[in-house]
Amino acid sequence: MHNNTINIVLADDDEDDRLFFTEAFEELKIKSNVSTYNNGVLLMEYLNKNDSIIPELLFLDLNMPKKSGIECLVDIKKNPRLKNMIIAIYSTSASEEDIEKTFVLGANIYIKKPNDFKKLKKALSEVVTTNWQYQTDNLNKDNFLLRL
Asked: pLDDT tens for residues 22-34?
């Protein structure tokens, strides 16, 4: 991280969700650069560029057109340059199948999109302030799903 600024990327096809996400970070006063992409194809094009800044934290929506969050997750984990990136699944889905699948594929945490701005800020703050160096050593399904 350069001068303690955290690089954060959100891939989400919902324009309102992208707006709330960036507004939440502005209000949290966390030194961050937030970039957003509205589909998985654009996200992967950015991440696969040799000169792209690899984000410390990627928030990934599951249900996107062109390339789903699951497809992006699989591609990221196959890429040696990207595979250690912290990935937070950020989805409206609370299906056990989605949670299980993303856990097995190597995501770090699963957040069901909050329907309340205050809860969104709380969730984002929690994810950003987690010490992932220690968290990933003992990753288990009990602490995979962020409950608000």
From this structure: 999 999 988 899 9
